[in-house]
């Protein structure tokens, strides 16, 4: 058998477990490379507990290198796949250098993202619950609300601050609402002016039941338990719009609130949309062997894939639900099929019948149905915790999470609001003489304005037969042409002397430019004044990307 390289994009449940099983069962000379945008695996079902402060953020994640010894782990952002050339293109490091890797088999396990663009006001005013940063942000926001509500003398403001709306009655919505309520109740003792009657938590669900991932009976059971805990559940209701102080429902009523958590509106990630594969319901269609339809040796699983469930008797096709339980089983089947395909052996059809389903609803309570037996309360919660402890990757992670739970049971919750360390939209960088700021072919990360010192920009101009050289001094700027189209840099940018630059982040620069048409005109004028026609509008770099055939 020949050496093969399997490249897996995504280090969540689908990707990380595929890598784990391949590493265990594939021939020793296979190279398994996993590319993920972070260097850790996130145990998403624990995120609501991170938001509520039950467990600390680093304990809900496991370093991929620790979890996957023997697998080549690459922290990078994949920007495209050239299926004709069997190449994955990615940006590496803080300089976002575009590089590529060849594959024999490709696994697409990129999950989904929350798409907030469908409902007016969601992008501006809602919080999400998908990764560690989201959980951290929600926690800080809720503590901020409690701090403010405790001291304000404005009753309307107090009521708004103490009203929490969660959009979506799936796993993440239900668990987030449950954990939020528990966190607030357990911290009330620190806020003498807040009473439990002041708390108003609303779970808004578009469908006629919550927890559609679970059985009907269990969903109804959870609804009753959550209602008893004071959570108002609005079924068959959707949010039409949101502002900074209210959400408006489809029946025209409004809820005054400063907190909207959105767990609905899952959609494909940009990388999924860029693949050139015709998506169905925003997902990558695969066959029952998890092979992307019409793409031999390209596989997909987890939330990103639309997976028909094998061995069905009914006429309507059923698809695998987007759950961690399913993703892990899909990973097992997929790893087996990659190996079988190489050995010309028959592939295994994916099928999985979960032995049970569980959801935590906070306050040491969960709902569960295991082997047809329905459980709720502390027993179900203990079962839930036991199962998750077993599913957590690595002994050290298990021990840390178990200790977190134990301490949380006996000790008061922390109400420390740790400041968000995210950089502001602009920041400074300093370069010494001779430092290379950008090389040709890199992607620009922001809009650079020179504060002091000088940078030299050198672009090869084949039409003129010599390099085009420009000196940029205080007040000059650089990067606007590449940023306008996500093109690669054309020239070499180096520091001539000690130089300080102010950088406006890429996304912020684009937002500003879109909202302020005068800027576009200004940059157009500057470009025409400075550059010869052959060097304008990033045309070389656009050709660069095209010639490499990246499907972005
Ligand atoms: C709050 C919450 C609670 C949940 N609770 C439960 C539960 O109780 N039980 C249950 O079974 N399921 C639960 N789920 C669902 C479960 O977590 C998901 O079904 C599961 O995580 C899907 O795994 P995945 O590998 O498909 O995607 P993900 O886990 O989302 O992983 C995708 C990975 O791909 C990476 N990636 C994406 N794009 C790129 C790119 N361009 N370049 C590099 N890397 C990229 C991402 O960084 C990420 O690491 C919950 C989900 C959430 C959000």
Total number of beta strands? 32
- Estimate the global geometry from the Cα principal axes: globular
Estimated structural class: alpha/beta
Mean pLDDT: 89
Gap from first CA to last CA? 33 Å
Sequence of strands across the biggest β-sheet: 7-6-5-2-1-8-20
Ligand inventory reads: flavin-adenine dinucleotide
Number of helices: 16
Binned strand content: 25-35%
How helical, in percent, are the residues?
25-40%
Q: Which radius of gyration do the C-alpha atoms yield?
A: 26 Å
Give the oligomer, counting copies of the same chain as homo and different chains as hetero: single chain
Explain this structure.
By secondary structure, this protein is α/β, with parallel strands linked by helices. The chain has 16 helices and 32 strands. The model is unreliable at 538-552 (pLDDT under 50). It has a seven-stranded mixed sheet with strand order 7-6-5-2-1-8-20. Strands 10-17-11-12-13 form a five-stranded parallel sheet. Strands 25-32-27-30 form a four-stranded antiparallel sheet. It is globular. The structure holds flavin-adenine dinucleotide. Flavin-adenine dinucleotide binds at residues 9-15, 35-38, 44-45, 47-48, 77-78, 109-111, 129-130, 171-172, 175, 269, 271, 302-304, 322-325, 327, 359. The site of flavin-adenine dinucleotide (FAD) has 36 residues, from α1, β2, α2, β5 and α7.
Outline of the structure:
With 552 residues, the chain is of the alpha/beta class.
Question: Main traits of this protein?
Answer:
binds flavin-adenine dinucleotide, globular
List the helices and strands and how they pair.
Elements (H helix, E strand, L loop, with lengths): L4 E5 L3 H13 L5 E6 L3 E3 L4 H5 L9 E3 H4 L4 E11 L4 E6 L4 E6 L2 E4 L4 E2 L7 H4 L1 E2 L3 H20 L3 H7 L1 E5 L3 H17 L12 E5 L11 H13 L2 E4 L4 E4 L3 E4 L4 E3 L2 E4 L3 E2 L2 H4 L10 E2 L12 E3 L4 E2 L17 H19 L13 E7 L2 E6 L2 E5 H14 L3 H16 L15 E6 L4 E3 L7 E7 L2 E7 L4 E7 L4 E2 L1 H6 L6 E4 L3 E7 H10 L1 H14 L8 H9 L5
Parallel strand pairs: 1-2, 1-8, 2-5, 8-20, 10-17, 11-12, 11-17, 12-13, 19-21
Antiparallel strand pairs: 3-4, 5-6, 6-7, 9-18, 14-15, 15-16, 22-23, 23-24, 25-32, 26-31, 27-30, 27-32, 28-29, 28-31
Helix pairs in contact: 1-10, 5-6, 14-15
Bound molecules: flavin-adenine dinucleotide (FAD).
The site of flavin-adenine dinucleotide (FAD) has 36 residues, from helix 1, strand 2, helix 2, strand 5 and helix 7.
